[in-house]
Amino acid sequence: MNVWPPDAPIRSIIGQTVREIVRVTAAGQQVILRFTNEFGSHPIQLDAVNVARALAAGWIDTQTAQKATFGGKAFGTISPGAALFSDPIDLHVDALSHLAVSYFTEQYFALATHHYEAQQTCYISEPGNFADAEVMPVQQTTTSHYLLSSVYVQAPKTTGAVVCFGDSITDGLCSTIDADNRWPDIFAERLRGAGIKLAVLNQGIGGNRLLHDCRGVKALERFNRDALTQHGATHLVLLEGINDILWPNTILASGREFVTADEIVAALGQLVLRAKMAGLKVMIGTLLPFENALPDLPGIGFYTPAKEAIRQAVNDFIRNLSGADAVMDFDVLMRDPAQPTRLLPEYDSGDHIHPNDAGYRAMANAIDLEFFA
């Protein structure tokens, strides 16, 4: 996603090594790394890139370490608005294992593209190339991630992939850092335990909306990039739209960005249709309750009875008219029966819109695996 100024804990990198930890959900003998300069206006040269099995606290297993090349060279350039893919790297990876991808660049570059609040620690070194170091001298850490956008695994042809497309609830905001407690993580574990050969791709962006840009380009625009062109994708779980309701007339968005229930359901219907045209089996989720949402932010209006009426209308469409192959009623699962406009307290992270670890686990455990078998 683009860097929204309030979300920029780190604004630039110069002569440092960045180490990002990622969890892969398919097993294989080769990987390809994808780096992105999606929103940058200047090229970024990667002078050294290393991938290895991740150990605790940013350490790596040096016996598994492999240098990445780009067209046979040890360095590569990410052009503005584009991506850079590594050559295939011989590296055995297990499903649900963690890799550390370390990259060094001598140049200065401003951070224009990132994954805000990835719920995973990213390590940034003191000045120097430490891409292949077992442990880096760390200058600072952040839970946002930067240039690395995908790890492709050379999996058997019988392996497919589920794209989990949504906003911060899919991204796992408010789950425990470094614990893999986002609902797509737990869903991947369930698939693995059931012997269903599907990787899980988390394409959630915090604050994302269907119809307006801000935190990430709007879903209608990013859908091709993040869902339809994903290699090996066979299924889609779609959960998006609450921010279109929540944001307008608040500190986050003006009233000019207000959207009606009809506009939201039209957008969701388009995503379902486009996914089915691309050959994906589609499961769509109802929108979670959000009364009293974001109490720590200044201003009022995140929840109003009028906004709740929009959510109810959208959920009615999702349950009955979306055209999806299956519906996961997250609303019924997560709401408080005594106050259906609110999250169940034991599933509430405290901001009254994002689940906690128990809530994300409940979401993942409720998904019918037969749909994916």
Describe the structure.
The chain is of the alpha+beta class. The chain has two domains: 5-151; 156-372, Rossmann fold (3-Layer(aba) Sandwich), CATH 3.40.50.1110. Helix content is 21%, strand content 31%. The chain is built from eight helices and 19 strands. It has helices at residues 168-171, 183-193, 219-228, 242-246, 261-277, 305-320, 330-334, 357-366, and strands at 12-24, 28-36, 44-46, 48-54, 60-67, 76-78, 83-85, 89-93, 97-110, 122-125, 138-142, 148-153, 160-166, 198-204, 233-239, 281-285, 326-328, 335-336, 339-343. A hairpin with a 2-residue loop joins β18 and β19 (339-343). α2 (183-193) crosses α8, α3 (219-228) packs parallel to α5 (261-277) and α5 packs parallel to α6 (305-320). It is globular. The protein starts with 11 loop residues before the first strand and ends in a 7-residue tail after the last helix. The model has no long low-confidence stretch (mean pLDDT 96). Residues 164-362 form the SGNH hydrolase-type esterase domain. Keywords: Hydrolase. InterPro entries: GDSL_Rv0518-like (IPR053140), SGNH_hydro (IPR013830), SGNH_hydro_sf (IPR036514). It comes from Pseudaminobacter soli. GO terms for molecular function: hydrolase activity, acting on ester bonds.
